Amino acid sequence: xxSAHVDTFAKDRxxxxxxxxxxxxxxxxxxxxxRLNCATELLDNAISKGWGDRPCIQAPGVHWTYAELLAQxxxxxNVLVQDMGLVPGNRVLLRAPNNPMLVAxxxxxxxxxxxxVATMPLLRAKELRQMIAKGEVSHALCDMRLADDLRAAAAxxxxxxxxxxxxxxxxxxxxxxxxxxxxMARQSDTFTNVDTAADDTCILAFTSxxxxxxxxxxxxxxxxxxxxxxxxxxxxxxxxxDVFIGSPPLAFTFGLGGLVLFPMSVGASTVxxxxxxxxxxLDGVKQYGATVLFTAxxxxxxxxxxxAVLRETKLRKxxxxxEALPGATRLLWREVTGIELIDGIxxxxxxxxxxxxxxxxxxPGATGKAIPGYVACVMDDEGNPLPPGKVGKLAVKxxxxxxxxxxxxxxxxxxxxxxxxxxxxxxxDDGFFHYQSRTDDMIVSAGYNIAAPxxxxxxxxxxxxxxxxxxxxxxxxRGQIVKAFVVLxxxxxxxxxLVRELQDFVKQTVAPYKYPREIEFCATLPRTETGKLQRxxxxxxxxxxxx
Length: 547
Known about the structure:
Elements: H1 9-12, H2 38-48, E1 55-59, E2 62-65, H3 66-83, E3 91-95, H4 100-111, E4 115-119, H5 125-135, E5 139-143, H6 147-155, E6 164-168, H7 180-185, E7 201-207, E8 215-220, H8 221-236, E9 243-246, H9 253-265, E10 269-271, H10 278-288, E11 292-295, H11 297-303, H12 307-311, E12 317-320, H13 327-337, E13 342-346, E14 353-356, E15 369-370, E16 375-379, E17 391-397, H14 410-413, E18 414-415, E19 418-427, E20 433-438, E21 443-445, E22 448-450, H15 452-460, E23 465-475, E24 479-488, H16 496-509, E25 518-521, H17 535-541
Parallel strand pairs: 1-10, 3-4, 3-5, 5-6, 9-10, 9-11, 11-12, 12-13, 24-25
Antiparallel strand pairs: 1-2, 7-8, 13-14, 14-15, 16-17, 17-19, 18-19, 19-20, 21-22, 23-24
């Protein structure tokens, strides 16, 4: 079908058809028209459905209806096009904590036919530069409080593509020429959405690779609507009266779906918290009367300590994703709240959850079954399906799938039409999938994916570090934590003070959640004759390492 994109960057860098997975559109709700704009479907059409006066987004000091969100998004779309020169297909970096302006900006990009590149608030200039360079990102809408790292990234040669920036939540009188709100005040609250093709890219989501080099995953307008048509109506079953709340950043596709797309697909409302520690979540659940909660197992374990408070809330559905759900956490939450956790596994490459089970079909130790619209199996190393009881590689097909932006790793993730998620699973006799481990070197800690080489690179920037090796080790609270084995340069000596110094150094170099929570100093690192680090020997040397 004919693309609406004038800037064909994304289309030109799609993997060739033969390297993409097989797509399945088996459900009636997945029969999409050739022309489709997800902003039209989720936001503009909400008004025609009579939802204009319904609450849509709540945050401290902000209560927007669907009509008010539409007006804000339209003004921003006009700014993007008329003031910032955006043409369909341009990439727009979005940088903010979870707040209403970030959502309005995301919808504005969709409306204008742009491609949203949402970034974690915790990312540093080094990480932003990688995304800007790889995605040739030309525009940005950024919360003023996060401006420093973005400006630092744009000032470097590999950030030079970024030429058009507007800041929101600016202080009164500060940089009015770059203020998004000031520009919005001059624009109309109406906008004619770009008539995008269903297979026009609208999201460029970056995810960590095991090598430390980020991978850009491309998703279409139809993909956004596909994830709204599969898991939410068949597993979550939320209602228009529900109030959603959660911890995942909107830059995570888990957060985008759970806190924006899914509630809006049924006319519900969402609560956005800029800080979402377990305490913040609990306060938000109480204050806003939240009924649907999205967070990681780590948070559920902490929240469970406030049993009496939880039982007085309006919570009725609780979703766990981002990391494997321990059976003990599921049991604890049910004992404390009476609510059965809805578990799920998803992937940035797949956009959202593809294996899950609702409350009635949950079973201890199992993630669930392939949700309607998807199929899954467990394969051996040769790509043959394995019978129940055998551990192998998880393979998935559905209406969404992996499309890496000009990346040779496409051939690793997609095999014979299947998406190979990098997870080891076992299938039981009843068709339930049981998580075993990762099949690659990715560290999954409290829902965050962390690449060991990226942490190693950060440590090696410290002048006291000669060599280092990083692994993930098991942790009851976070699933895994990052552990670093460090060889010091001559003249420097191990100490608790140096551990803290190196940890702080990493926090200042890359996103703070990537820092090594354990550091072990050693004289040498295990390497092959060719100098390659032997991570398996580091695992063997660490008493808490997962087996």
